[in-house]
Amino acid sequence: MYVPIVILLRTGNSSLFRGAITLLAKVPGEKLFLSSGYLNHNIASSPRLIEAIGDGFHGFANSQIITVGGMFEGNPHNQERYNKFVYSLRQANFSVRQYFSASGKWHAKVAVKLRDGRPVAAVIGSSNLTKAAFCDGGKERNQECDVLIYEQDVISVDSLDAVLRGNYVLSQPINVDEEDLLSDLLDGLRDTIKEERLTEAE
């Protein structure tokens, strides 16, 4: 099978990462995995993101968001922002399982959508779930590069164009088994999570 890989290098004002996360969230499936070093609650209360998550969960019983963060060592404000991020998602009536890193140095930036227990799309990259990565324009924006990987049937080229407005590079399809590729990514995350001895919030 062939894997579409979309490379998103931000060179202007528009946040391509926000578009990629929105596309990922809208993919039908029962679980959304969000991992980031830093998180900002304003992102979790974004109407566009909330709507996309709801659309993706529609029709799936026991839908759930799983969050992992973050870079807390020596900065309690980062943990407070993470707590507010999760609170905002719960205020939107989503079920959320929240995990903390024992080391306080968790910096993996990965989002994965699962359907029937297996991954079907992922965003991997440099962007945290923060205003600097999500915002358009302004002094706070970061120049980021992220990668969107997905099963061919879950995101159309028309959807890419509508959300990203052509500001992306779609690679020549790579001849690999996308299910294995995404499953290997998820398995690697699970192994790392075990090694990090993550703690689930009450």
Short précis:
The protein is of the alpha+beta class. It contains 7 helices and 11 strands.
Written account of the structure:
This protein has 202 residues and is an alpha+beta fold. It has seven helices and eleven strands. The strands form two sheets. The protein has a nine-stranded mixed beta sheet. The mean pLDDT is 85.
Blueprint (SSEs and pairs):
Elements: E1 2-3, E2 5-9, H1 16-26, E3 31-35, H2 41-44, H3 47-57, E4 64-69, H4 76-91, E5 96-100, E6 110-115, E7 118-125, H5 131-134, E8 145-150, H6 157-164, E9 169-170, E10 174-175, H7 178-196, E11 199-200
Parallel strand pairs: 3-4, 4-5
Antiparallel strand pairs: 1-10, 2-8, 2-9, 3-6, 5-11, 6-7, 7-8
Helix pairs in contact: 1-3, 1-6
Q: State the low-pLDDT regions, or none.
A: none
Radius of gyration: 16 Å
Mean pLDDT, to the nearest integer, reads 85
The helix fraction, in percent, is 25-40%
Shape: globular
The total count of strands amounts to 11
- Trace the largest sheet across and list its strands: 9-2-8-7-6-3-4-5-11
Q: Main β-sheet, in a few words?
A: 9 strands, mixed
The secondary-structure class comes to alpha+beta
Order of helices and strands: EEHEHHEHEEEHEHEEHE
Oligomer: single chain
Alpha-carbon distance between the two ends: 42 Å
- Strand content is 15-25%
Number of helices: 7
Overview features:
202 residues, alpha+beta, two-stranded antiparallel sheet, 11 strands, 24% strand
